[in-house]
Amino acid sequence: MKNNLFVIFGATGNLTYKKLLPALYRLMDQNLISSATKIICIGRKNFTTKSYIEDALTQVKEEINWSVFKKSLFYYQMDIESMPDYIALKTFIENNCQMYTDNSIFYLATAPGLFPIIARGISEGNLVSKEDLKGRVVFEKPFGEDLDSAKKYNQMVRDYFDENQIYRIDHYLGKEMIQNILVVRFSNKIFEDIWNNKGIKSVTILAKETGGVMNRGGYYDGSGALKDMVQNHLMQMLSLIAMEPPEDFDTDDIRQRKVQVIQKLKANFNAENLLVGQYKGYKKEKGVDPDSKTETFVFLKAEIDTERWKGVPFYILTGKQLDEKKSEIIIEFLENSHSHKKWPKDSIQSNRLIIRVDPEDGITFQINTKIPGLSSDVKPVVLDYCHGCQAIGNLPEAYEKLLLDIVLGDTTLFPRWDEIEHSWQFIDQVKAYLGDTTPIEYTNFEELRKKVIK
Ligand SMILES: NC(=O)c1ccc[n+]([C@@H]2O[C@H](COP(=O)([O-])OP(=O)(O)OC[C@H]3O[C@@H](n4cnc5c(N)ncnc54)[C@H](OP(=O)(O)O)[C@@H]3O)[C@@H](O)[C@H]2O)c1
């Protein structure tokens, strides 16, 4: 098993405590990565390794055997913006971790504005060089703040590293049911011939949250639902649902098919097809501009301009402070055009395939069936598959899967640069249309539902 070194920039941040440390611990605990793995946690705060671990103990909610895990951890205090600090970091790594034996993984868990400077530091500090395939650099989402900044970051990052050393994370792609989309679509013959505009009436991709911005107001206010959710998570779901069948299912083939979908995404912007909202009380959240026009809700109707999808609406809906926490994809199939000759039209409903991503993992398939008894009346019923219930032990967290793939050098579940580029292009068009629009204020989802569901 390989000896891995993880270096986390932004290790005193929310993401590291909530996701990265628990995921790394579980991978080590299950022997999926070596127990000799070393993790250097970098922050600005004045911690020693001992006091960092004490702080992590209070911040990390997951169960961790700290007496074991702490042997892998180091805290290293540095200013990410200071180039000499990277030279000193290299010396620290050489003295403490015997680096360069196996994989060295540099994880940028910071705001995207710091990506270029950290990338430069890693390169100029000789921590990773272009030819070194054991050196990998991981960028958290969002990659950029708009198309221009994303292009600029990418150009800088590509000056320092090869594309196959770069891992741009979108943790939705590590979720079990997102990985399951390809299996459902391409391993079930029943869907093959109807996965197009002759079989499908509409596709809805939604990610609803009940909470507000909590302590992330400062970050969120500069982003909003379009950039925080649609540009990455929802676009990735859409591209997996709508991509053409890959020929050989290798990494490049799959990424190529995905990018072709995003390139063809079109929307006829008008008040019917695009709605942005802001929850009441948002402007009073900590870190939020009191005059903010940032959207906390988006509904968008788009189309994919290909033979397969011509005429099929793709509805995208996401927001905060809504009625439920739910992320799912609803495929609604066309009705059987003859069924009403035998059964009342309103008793027959369209078949629906629902891929449930979060918080439950599963699949629901709705079909019409006869009501039991002597009458021949019809009603819709659901066939329900609970994915989590079938798992032996807990389902792996998205970050566990993605961190393991980075160690293994598998880039399939990491968006390629052109996927990110085209998704920013689309979001920039939406933003340009919206201009200075004031989002409508909402207090609950019902008020929005009436406006978006006709
Ligand atoms: N939080 C989540 O659930 C989540 C989920 C998905 C993606 N993300 C993405 O992950 C990234 C990090 O998010 P986060 O919520 O963890 O952010 P955060 O809580 O604000 O943490 C930011 C981290 O960056 C460090 N930092 C900032 N400037 C620095 C400097 N000049 N030198 C050294 N360290 C510096 C901070 O160190 P100090 O605290 O020591 O100053 C802190 O460790 C963002 O890109 C975010 O979009 C977060």
From TrEMBL:
Annotated GO MF terms: glucose-6-phosphate dehydrogenase activity; NADP binding
Catalytic activities: D-glucose 6-phosphate + NADP(+) = 6-phospho-D-glucono-1,5-lactone + NADPH + H(+)
Keyword ATP-binding attributed: no
Enzyme Commission code(s) on record: 1.1.1.49
Gene3D superfamilies in the record: Dihydrodipicolinate Reductase, domain 2 (3.30.360.10), NAD(P)-binding Rossmann-like Domain (3.40.50.720)
Binding site for NADP(+): 44, 79-80, 141
Domain Glucose-6-phosphate dehydrogenase C-terminal: 182-443
UniProt-listed PROSITE patterns: G6P_DEHYDROGENASE
Binding annotation for substrate: 171, 175, 209, 228, 320, 325
Residue positions of the active site: 233 (proton acceptor)
Residues of the Glucose-6-phosphate dehydrogenase NAD-binding domain: 7-180
Domain of life: Bacteria
Role noted for this protein: Catalyzes the oxidation of glucose 6-phosphate to 6-phosphogluconolactone.
Protein name in the entry: Glucose-6-phosphate 1-dehydrogenase
Organism name: Alkaliphilus metalliredigens (strain QYMF)
Name of the encoding gene: zwf
